[in-house]
Design goal:
The chain has helices spanning 7-23, 26-32, 41-49, 68-80, 87-101, 104-115, 229-265, 277-305, 311-337, 348-358, 365-375, and strands at 121-124, 140-144, 147-158, 165-171, 182-187, 194-199, 207-218, 267-268, 271-272. The chain is an alpha+beta fold and 378 residues long. It folds into three domains: 7-119, Butyryl-Coa Dehydrogenase, subunit A, domain 1; 122-221, Butyryl-CoA Dehydrogenase, subunit A, domain 2, CATH 2.40.110; 229-375, Butyryl-CoA Dehydrogenase, subunit A, domain 3. Helix 1 (7-23) runs parallel beside helix 4.
Length: 378
């Protein structure tokens, strides 16, 4: 397996880096903290024009039909800028669920809009009791005439406040933790019986609790692409996890670079504090952790693209590795910046807060280590 980026992938990386430097800054992130939407629709439209919203999707719906490695290349650069635009919620969760599990009619209606940046989707699958298990579903979809009445609650739904449709999991049959009997439905967040409650998040990314009280949908709202729903869910969450890992990789590298720059300029006893041996050792450890994280993320992306048998193991390895590395580097960044690192006025705090939220999104380290062990049949 060749880990070197191809010439086309290197060009994509350079393009993404230039875009983030040009269109975003941590000053912009500060301003968006108070924004009701939480991201810039103008920046989102520009990302659509670059083709990034369609990288994973087939050409027949307007996509670029590229691979997970290309997606990781872009997500890493977006992570460097802590960009809050909904690549994870819309592209890697909501739209990917529709692309994997939706019918041709559903895809024809929504995928071109998503790829053009004209519509936002999201995915609601987590419930209060589920703790990362996507098949621990208490939300019920009961038959009513030619449609369904859906009741239940989803938590930590990304960017629900801006989504035109939210894909939700609901149980039509079976016991609560069964893989079988779970279906996916397209829900209009403005429909009768839908309530969206915003959840305050440390990193100011928008998340919400989605409450469904007998929401009536017709048969056409059920995703019916022929692929088993449990396989759709596994595939979507796997790809989304690797995409999030790439974002975390970019953010931890940016935090590390900012810290090293500070160590080179901050003086104590007449010399840069970066010359102190103890700090050099700590920086060396952080560098090793970022490179281990990078290898695990790109390996997982390549496993997805090449449909390798150990793909699920590689995904959990990458997430556990990125969780630990980002946690360490964010902590060290605050410590090495000293008192100023604790203030809201300094940008380094944004990376600390993003690390805390990202590491518990799509599975914390304990969950992925346990999943790794189960997959290896330990």
């Amino acid at each position: 397996m060749n880990f070197a980026l191809s010439e086309e992938q290197q060009m994509l990386q350079s393009m993404a880096k230039e875009f983030v430097n040009r269109e975003s800054s941590l000053r912009r992130i500060r301003e968006l903290r108070e924004d009701a939407v939480g991201f810039s629709k103008d920046v989102w439209k520009k990302m659509a024009e670059l083709g990034w919203l369609g990288m994973l999707f087939p050409e027949r719906v307007g996509g670029q039909e590229m691979g997970m490695v290309e997606t990781v290349v872009v997500m890493e650069e977006l992570g460097r800028g802590l960009m809050p635009e909904p690549m994870l919620g819309t592209v890697l969760l909501g739209a990917l669920a529709l692309a994997q599990g939706g019918s041709e009619a559903q895809q024809a209606e929504w995928m071109p809009k998503v790829i053009d940046g004209k519509a936002l989707l999201s995915l609601g699958y987590l419930e209060r009791q589920s703790r990362y298990d996507p098949f621990d579903v208490a939300t019920a979809a009961k038959r009513e005439g030619k449609g369904y009445a859906i009741s239940g609650e989803k938590v930590f739904v990304p960017d629900a406040q801006a989504a035109e449709r939210i894909v939700v999991t609901a149980r039509t049959d079976g016991a609560r933790r069964d893989r079988e009997g779970v279906a996916l439905f397209l829900i209009d967040p403005k429909a009768k019986g839908v309530t969206i409650e915003q959840l305050p998040m440390m990193d100011w990314r928008k998340r919400a609790t989605l409450k469904l009280a007998g929401v009536k949908v017709d048969e056409a709202a059920r995703l019916a692409g022929g692929k088993p729903t449990d396989q759709v869910i596994d595939d979507v969450l796997g790809r989304a996890t690797v995409g999030l890992c790439a974002e975390m990789l970019g953010a931890m590298n940016q935090a590390f670079d900012m810290t090293v720059d500070y160590l080179k300029t901050r003086k104590q006893f007449g010399v840069p504090i970066g010359s102190f041996q103890a700090l050099k050792h700590r920086c060396a450890d952080q560098y090793v952790q970022t490179e281990l994280a990078r290898s695990s993320v790109y390996y997982a992306a390549m496993c997805i693209d090449e449909n390798m048998p150990d793909t699920a193991i590689a995904i959990s390895t990458a997430k556990a590795r990125c969780n630990d590395a980002f946690h360490l580097i964010a902590n060290e960044a605050i410590q090495m910046h000293g008192g100023i690192g604790m203030t809201d006025e300094h940008d380094i705090g944004f990376f600390f807060k993003r690390a805390r939220v990202a590491e518990v999104t799509l599975g914390d380290s304990a969950y992925h280590r346990d999943r790794y062990a189960r997959l290896k049949e330990y």
